[in-house]
Design goal:
Elements (H helix, E strand, L loop, with lengths): L1 H24 L3 H26 L1 H9 L3 H25 L1 H9 L5 H32 L4 H25 L2 H28 L14 H30 L5 H34 L3 H38 L5 H13 L1 H20 L5 H46 L3 H29 L2 H19 L2 H13 L1
Helix pairs in contact: 1-7, 1-10, 2-6, 2-9, 2-10, 3-4, 3-6, 4-6, 4-9, 5-6, 6-8, 7-8, 9-10, 9-14, 10-11, 10-12, 10-13, 11-12, 11-13, 11-15, 11-16, 11-17, 12-14, 13-14, 15-16
């Protein structure tokens, strides 16, 4: 709950930053450039979250064997060898990267992207180390300090953006992201140091021990390959979205971020905090399927409510939050995109629950190949989707590829046959309840009122029906905790 609450704060702050950008700058070449550079930040940040998961079994094992400090130091050294080149490239080749991201060698979008990259790449690298430190605390069964650090960093970053965006322009967003990453790293790092001091840990224990540097790079590569590939599926869509006209890429980014927030708060938080308990208790193909299905029921109950609201009142809600530039057809399009991404949300929730189990069970060898295959498949699929259905086609293409990745990942875990029926039942049950709850008010009331009544009806219906899978999922997670 602490981790989910922290992620909720982070997602809420990200939404607030999006509101600030929308109201201050609308949908322009400047926002296209900023959000193109933001895609790079997201890729590295996703890698940070993936590495955070990948190292958890090793750190939990090291803690049990009394060598946690040395294992953390070894991973930190390996991360430094990755982060330094990234920062240098962002500083020295920002113009070239901006051209690649925006499809333009000059202009406002290019210049904005280039300047933003110089700030957001170091910020993302700070999150690489923050994730490692958070995993070190998780190995000590401490989730509160890292949760507070992420929430505090996001809040401080938002405060800086609100303070400086009017006098300094859109670059203030990048400054806020840098402050966010700094605090998210420093808070858990201080917490870890304090715990070490209280335990009177000798300084020599911090020397890198365990696996050689090459093996740690391999751990990072295997751990980050699939999540990075999944994020790159979205990045692949950005140039196709940009070709739909000014502001189209901004709309697609906002829709994707909204859908991603639902995945992160639900499946993402559960995936993070259940890795260590599952590692210590052991897991089989049957328990893998049970874990994914149980957690998916809880996650999809929240997703169903959100999709119902956006289906009925997405345009009005988005216009009221983001401002007039997102009114009318633009707001309706954003709401429709989020609903079209519902299959992507379902698949992503399942992936975020299954992915940590690959490291718990040791079935990680195929992860890079799954990611590579998805990327190769996504390029032509995104092109076809954009040609046929514009942004709607890109959303559907992204969903289709992600569903394929989910299917292959479950097969790799030897849990596809046992998991698929449960996931299908969860999606069907939640979908039917949401449709019945939200559909009736849509014929009788305006969009906002219909969404509000539908939301109440949805909650009441869940309470009355009490789907067995949802109840079993809740009891399972409480017992696991």
């Amino acid at each position: 709950m602490l981790t989910a609450a922290s992620m909720l704060v982070v997602a809420g702050v990200a939404a607030a930053v999006g509101v600030v950008i929308a109201r201050e700058f609308g949908r322009t070449d400047e926002t296209d450039g900023l959000l193109a550079a933001y895609g790079v930040f997201i890729v590295i940040a996703i890698g940070a979250q993936a590495i955070r998961i990948a190292v958890l079994p090793d750190l939990a094992r090291a803690r049990d064997e009394g060598r946690l400090a040395g294992e953390l130091a070894g991973f930190a050294l390996a991360l430094t060898a990755i982060a330094v080149p990234l920062v240098l490239v962002a500083g020295l080749a920002s113009s070239w990267l901006a051209s690649l991201l925006t499809g333009d060698g000059a202009g406002i979008a290019h210049d904005t992207a280039a300047e933003t990259l110089r700030w957001v790449v170091p910020a993302a690298c700070a999150h690489l180390f923050a994730g490692l430190v958070a995993s070190g605390l998780a190995a000590l069964d401490d989730y509160a300090i890292a949760a507070f650090g992420y929430a505090a960093g996001s809040s401080a970053g938002l405060a800086l953006i609100v303070w400086r965006v009017e006098p300094d322009g859109i670059i203030a967003v990048a400054w806020g992201m840098t402050l966010n990453g700094t605090i998210a790293l420093l808070v858990p790092l201080v917490g870890l140091v304090v715990r070490a001091a209280r335990a009177r840990m000798p300084r020599g224990a911090v020397r890198p021990t365990g696996s050689p540097l090459r093996a740690r790079f391999s751990t990072f590569l295997v751990g980050a390959a699939l999540p990075l590939a999944l994020q790159l599926l979205y990045v692949v869509c950005l140039p196709f979205a940009s070709r739909q006209g000014t502001g189209a890429a901004t709309s697609f980014v906002y829709a994707y971020l909204g859908a991603s927030a639902l995945v992160t708060i639900t499946g993402g938080s559960l995936g993070l905090v259940t890795s260590v308990p599952l590692f210590r208790s052991g897991i089989t193909a049957e328990s893998t399927a049970r874990h994914i299905v149980a957690a998916s029921w809880v996650s999809l109950a929240l997703v169903g409510a959100a999709c119902g609201v956006f289906a009925l009142a997405g345009g009005d809600v988005i216009e009221s939050v983001l401002g007039g530039a997102y009114g009318g057809e633009v707001g309706a399009e954003l709401g429709r995109l989020i609903v079209l991404l519902a299959p992507w949300i379902l698949a992503s929730v399942a992936i975020s629950l299954a992915f940590p189990l690959a490291f718990v069970t040791g079935r990680t060898r195929g992860l890079p190949w799954i990611g590579l295959g998805a990327l190769v498949f996504q390029v032509p699929l995104a092109w076809v989707g954009a040609e046929l259905l514009d942004l709607d086609g890109l959303a559907l293409a992204l969903a289709f590829t992600t569903i394929l990745v989910c299917t292959v990942l479950l097969w790799e875990l030897r849990a596809l046959g046992k998991t698929s029926p449960g996931l299908g039942a969860a999606a069907l049950t939640i979908g039917v309840i949401a449709a019945l709850a939200f559909l009736a008010p849509s014929f009788l009331l305006g969009s906002i009122a219909a969404a509000a009544v539908g939301l109440v009806a949805y909650v009441v219906a869940l309470a009355l029906v009490r789907p067995r899978g949802l109840a079993d999922g809740w009891h399972y997670l409480r017992a696991l905790g």
